[in-house]
Amino acid sequence: MDCLFCKIIAGEIPSTKVYEDDKILAFRDINPQAPAHILVIPKEHIGGVDELNAENSGVVGYIFAKIAEIARQEGLKDGYRVVSNVGEHGCQSVRHLHFHILGGKQLNGNMV
Ligand code: AMP
Fold first, then answer.
1. What Cα–Cα distance (Å) separates residue 70 from each residue in 44, 82, 92?
2. Which residues does 100 contact at the CB level (< 8 Å), separation at least 6?
3. Other residues' Cβ atoms within 10 Å of the Cβ of residue 22
4. CA atoms of 26 and 68, how far apart (whole Å)
5. What is the value of pTM for the model shown?
């Protein structure tokens, strides 16, 4: 499958890893939009939030529990934003489910 994030999981493309286990990988975004910008992805290929269903969505709760841990490790004690872009209108550029953790500064209050 020609998926950038599957290649990162496979080690075919380098990444700056923040956390990894058998289910998920967290790594630093190559084009950071905030002082802390981390992507958290499932190792199973799921295209995006729009491909979640009753069978494959268990990993999302697991990811969010790890997001809280990672944010603590990163020292984001004043808060942060978790974002998942979906499809064309959502400006999703990589079709592998991922959650952005953005923090380390006061973020803009506008969502769009
Ligand atoms: P999205 O636009 O929501 O699909 O997010 C995709 C994100 O992946 C963007 O923030 C990119 O900067 C990031 N990205 C693309 N290629 C890489 C890479 N090789 N390593 C780390 N982050 C990447």
1. 20, 12, 23
2. 29, 33, 37, 38, 39, 81, 82, 83, 84, 85
3. 5
4. 12
5. 0.98
Average pLDDT over residues 53-59: 98
**pLDDT for residue 33 is more than 80:** yes
* Catalytic positions: 98
The strand pairing partners of 82, in sequence order, are: 101
From the CB of 92, is ligand 1 less than 6 Å away? yes
Q: What is the pLDDT of residue 28?
A: 98
In our burial notation (b when 16+ CB lie closer than 10 A, e otherwise), range 50-82 reads eebeeeeeebbeebeebbeebbeebebeeebee
Is the pLDDT confidence value at 1 over 80?
A: no
Distance 53 CA to ligand 1 centre (A): 24
Cα 15 to chain center, whole Å? 13
The whole-angstrom separation of Cα 71 and Cα 79 is 8
